[in-house]
Known about the structure:
The complex is a heterodimer of chains A (651) and B (248).
Chain A: H1 10-22, H2 28-57, H3 74-85, H4 90-98, H5 104-108, H6 120-137, H7 141-161, H8 168-177, H9 181-189, H10 196-204, H11 219-228, E1 231-237, E2 242-245, H12 250-269, E3 276-279, E4 282-289, E5 292-298, H13 304-322, H14 324-333, H15 340-343, H16 347-359, H17 362-366, E6 369-370, H18 376-389, E7 394-401, E8 404-410, H19 418-431, H20 433-437, E9 440-445, E10 456-464, E11 485-492, H21 498-514, H22 517-527, H23 532-535, E12 543-548, E13 553-555, H24 566-583, E14 592-596, E15 600-606, E16 610-617, H25 622-643, E17 649-650
Parallel strand pairs in A: 6-13, 8-17
Antiparallel strand pairs in A: 1-2, 1-5, 3-4, 4-5, 7-8, 7-11, 9-10, 10-11, 12-13, 12-16, 14-15, 15-16
Chain B: E1 13-22, H1 28-37, E2 50-58, E3 63-71, H2 81-85, E4 90-96, H3 100-116, E5 122-128, H4 137-142, H5 146-149, H6 171-181, E6 184-187, H7 196-206, H8 223-239
Parallel strand pairs in B: 1-3, 1-4, 4-5, 5-6
Antiparallel strand pairs in B: 2-3
Organism (chain B): Zopfia rhizophila CBS 207.26
Region (Disordered) (chain B): 134-170
Pfam families (chain B): Ras
Amino acid sequence: MEGTGNADPQTPGTSLENAPTSSTQKNDKVEQQDFINPTINIIQSASRRTSTSGVSSISREETPPPLPPRPKNLAFFDSRPSSSHSLAPTRPQLVSKATTQLSYTDTQSYNDESREESLSSGASRRKNYFGLNVSRNASDAEDNVSVRSFAPTIEVGGDAESILGEVIGDHEKSLLTSLGNRFEDKESESLFPPDPEFEETFKQEFDEIEEMKADGSNEESVMLQWRAKLKHFLILSSAGKPIYSRHGNDQLITNYIGVVQAIISFYQGANDVLRGFTAGDVRFVVISQGPLNLVAITRLTESDAQLRAQLDALYMQILSTLTLPSMERMFATRASYDLRRPLQGTETLLSALADGFTRGSPSTLLSALECLKLRKSHRHVINSTFLKTRSESLLYGLIVASGKLVSVVRPKKHSLHPGDLHLIFNMLFEAGSVKAGGGENWIPLCLPGFNNTGFLYMYVSFLNLEHPTEQVQERPVSKEGEGDEVAILLISANKEGFFELRGMRDDLVEQLQKNGSIDLMRGAVRQGRPSCTDIVPGSPLRHFLYKSRGNVQFTMPSFDPYFQTALDRRRLMNLYHHLHAHLHTKPTHLKIHHSTSTTNISLAWTTPLFELYCVAPATTSRAALAQAANKVIQWVRKEEERVFIIGGAVF
Amino acid sequence: MADSGAQAQPKPSSSVKLVLLGEAAVGKSSLVMRFVNNDFQENKEPTIGAAFLTQKCNLPTRTIKFEIWDTAGQERFASLAPMYYRNAQAALVVYDITKPSSLTKAQHWVAELQRQASPGIVIALVGNKLDLASSNPNSGSSDGDDADAAPAAEGEEEGEEGEGDARRVPTKTAKAYADEEGLLFFETSAKTGLNVAEVFTAIANAIPETSLKGPRGVGGQTSLGRQEDARVNLVGGRTEGAKEGCAC
């Protein structure tokens, strides 16, 4: 579809170069060659990126220093402007492509080339992934060559063809082989084409990287493990000191930190801002926040804006630990200050965030929160109990059940920043350090969205809903029913407020138990999210995300039964990221975006009130999908006060 | 609690505020978890801020209810420490026997406690991770010669001593320091549970009777302490029956 973005032309070249990296064949010779290449790649693509595509996506950028592109890319270079700035060249490609591909109709739904330039980054990555697939999947050399040579011309179709990257030739093959019994299975079971490469990589994504041996004998395999990761985050100081890396220890990342730092400071030196670049199938996005540089490196389907949001969250986590003024002070005294010292112990929080982004988090994607579905009257009882027991120094009070908000109490003039809540939820439910300790906790933290200059103090107590009799016990005995746990968070600006808030917690829990709210919460938690067919009987939808813009909250159906594994969820999230990128591309504002692939049909729809993303099997017609989407909207409208917290308890 | 618990427990009971201090990752939370839940977690994530737990300890003549502040060891939380050790009747200063720098840090904490905390505070110096030391009972004390060399070799995980003994702080060194400062001294393993209950029992025994007049203890003058008592009693009364004493 919008594959004609400026970065596309590099596909053939880079895919050839990089294919071995991710290919499962572990050919030493090839790997080694690849070893040498990345740096060149990075620099080369950096220059290419900023000299052409950077301009198209970011108007603020000044004219970047001219760097000569690699000769082999020159041809594509020349063709880029025409393909990305006018529709004319795209059309013929579509048409000519249709003769070789199955899904001409599919490409028809992608008429919005006007967006393509700003989406180029996302497109280019997908594109490259596609390139990877080609070289990987085509087993015999002949196929390989022919498909590759096609790549530049069919790329538009290729992208439109499949959101999750599958090559037509490949697909045909799999179709033929599976026409028997398995074909039907696939239709009914999976929305996504099989992609063993991605599956394999994703499976290992969360594994720890081996320790480098002292004699360096396993250096190569360690490097390969490191490079095989789909997503990296690097945080470094503007002086180039490493602060955080998602994967690998210092020894491993030093070189990369050095290269990244060199690239960033090169542009800073030229009074330019480097926002991102592409190297092979990998997208790099950089943000500079004061004395920190944060880099996201991804091979997943994510747009620059989405990656920036993730980097912002990591930056907020750092501020949450240190506060902005104190961090600035540290660097003011010495630019080469080692920030890892004051951040000691928070690596787990940063990594929990990073893992969340790698698994794919609807909450981060939509910058919104999910609430526990409760009847309006029930929530009202909880809210008023909260208000009734509110103690003097309370600033915010929250009840959170398995990562979903149950109730909020807040001062009239302050609302809660979703980013802040995300940090808190991450700390309590993802990182697990607080919960694992048992007992009650008193945690100083800065909520940067609320005020990035000072600390607040948070009282945290977990209740075990499974054993209501033990609720007031101070130490939860075991942590088996984790999903059923409810946390009570009471935030105050008073450093010494622990016992005051502890008293409030006791009152609150006692009252909630007395008026039956605890039981209601337990019921709601147990019930979980409804399935699509519970919401709209007979709905063809497999999943959806509905974000209420006004409430900055979202709701979604259960991942079961279609998306039970982390891999399936990640693929679903890839699709959502893709749709989201389309809706949020500037300057064009799409209202509705239909997208079809051989295995699924999806819809993204935005109005001033909501954003809706939904997906159904490919056999669903567009009309049916649209109708299902409408039904979802009706359902949400009906259930609005149950699935969202509107206003909350205000004092 | 003293009142409500009186029916079930004829023995007089009193609350003792106890604070754990020490460098990051020496095993403070693990010690508490072993003491409170008799549980151990490998690779526990660092504590953020501080955790508050309680556990009772039955002595022959009375019951001590520990109100434990398990603090985070990271440098950035150091400024909050006074809030936790103020009015504390007991402190557990923990170091890691495989890490000499952690003993240095422990000594700083001891000095700060002696300077700033309530006079009469009972301090126990605890060398944790005893399971990492070789089982040879002599190794700890006979390695006295290595005491000076140890800090230099700190970086290496496996020293020349062989037998996989990761101990870098000889028992003798720490014991001598503890005696000099009048501290209780123990080497423990939160992982195996070795000596953990003993530490708390020893502290309970060392708390002077005079400071245990009631549930209120000598502390509780600040807002922190006062509130605490009110709440703790309430909770303690309720859990009394379910929790039958601690390991000690």
